[in-house]
Amino acid sequence: MHKINLILCFILMSANILAQNSKKINGAGNNINAYIGTWVYQSNDTIFKIVFQKGKNITSYGETHGLYGGYYLSVKGEVLENYMGPLPTCWNLKISTTRPDNMYIWAPNSDSYDKSTVPTLGMSFYDKRKKHFNGKGISGGYIKLLSPKKLLWHLDEKEGIWWEVEGREDTDITKVLPIGFSVPEHAILTKEE
């Protein structure tokens, strides 16, 4: 009888431990601080700016820290895109899966990086004019810090299409045609002071 009580006690303790809802925090740390701020690219009569601030996504599984961003584009002195306004600091997907209207770039940080180095960050870009995948945004891009004052911005639409439709039985990847971007796809930006 003593053995049965001991076994039952062990089973109940194990079930209680396994039932704990452990929340994982991904990408927390200060290794992305170097990205925070406004970055500018200028070529002839085109000015492209992006701004980054820290933020996080919360899901039922945990939270992911990263960067929220906005962008600005002017050509020949005419402002075509201006989404540099207030950015979110948190997107709680437990409350709403609808992306905040003021979120244009999301670059999640990863736990796989050495916390002492500045990582290259993959990102999703929400092009307000082109509206990839009906405004859901497109991944396949990345940002990379080249130096404390230089940033590489890269968008790859074909890769983003692949990430979106690979494995989906309802979509033929050969029928999803690239529509381009309203901003430069590849640029080296300089940090504004």
What do these coordinates show?
With 193 residues, the protein is mainly β. The chain has one domain (23-191). Helix content is 13%, strand content 40%. The protein is built from two helices and eleven strands; from the N terminus they run H-E-E-E-E-E-E-E-E-E-E-H-E. The protein has helices spanning 2-18, 157-165; strands at residues 24-26, 37-43, 46-59, 62-75, 78-83, 90-92, 105-108, 121-125, 138-147, 150-154, 186-191. Strands 2-3-4-7-8-9-10-11 form an eight-stranded antiparallel barrel. Strand 2 and strand 3 (46-59) form a beta hairpin. It holds the Pfam family DUF6705. Residues 1-192 form the DUF6705 domain. InterPro entries: DUF6705. Residues 1-19 form the signal peptide.
